[in-house]
Design goal:
There is one protein chain. Helix content is 48%, strand content 13%. By secondary structure, it is α+β, with helices and mostly antiparallel strands. It has two domains: 33 residues; 49 residues, no CATH class. β3 and β4 form a beta hairpin. The relative contact order is 0.09.
Length: 91
């Protein structure tokens, strides 16, 4: 660790700095995950689910999240796990 008897090698300082930065990041994430002030989902902020038009069948439906653009029956049909009720609802 020591060079010439009295000076520390610069790589040790860099290693200590990297370890401290990693610990700081871990602590920041731990505080974020336990904090009640983190951002809420858009559905809760807006006061409820948005009414969107399905891109597949064109019928309105309640969207669960911002990227939800296809209704549940159409998703089931696309995944081939549809029931007769889903087929009738999507038609």
């Amino acid at each position: 660790m020591r060079r010439d008897g009295d000076r520390c090698d610069w790589r040790w300082y860099l290693l200590v700095l990297a370890v401290l930065a990693a610990l700081w990041t871990i602590l920041a994430w731990a505080l974020y995950l336990t904090d009640d002030r983190k951002p809420k989902p858009l559905v809760k902020v807006a006061g409820g689910p948005a009414i969107r038009t399905c891109l597949n069948c064109g019928k309105p439906f309640e969207s669960d999240w911002i990227g939800n653009r296809i209704c549940t029956p159409c998703i089931r049909i696309a995944n081939k796990s549809a029931t007769n009720e889903d087929l009738a609802e999507a038609s």
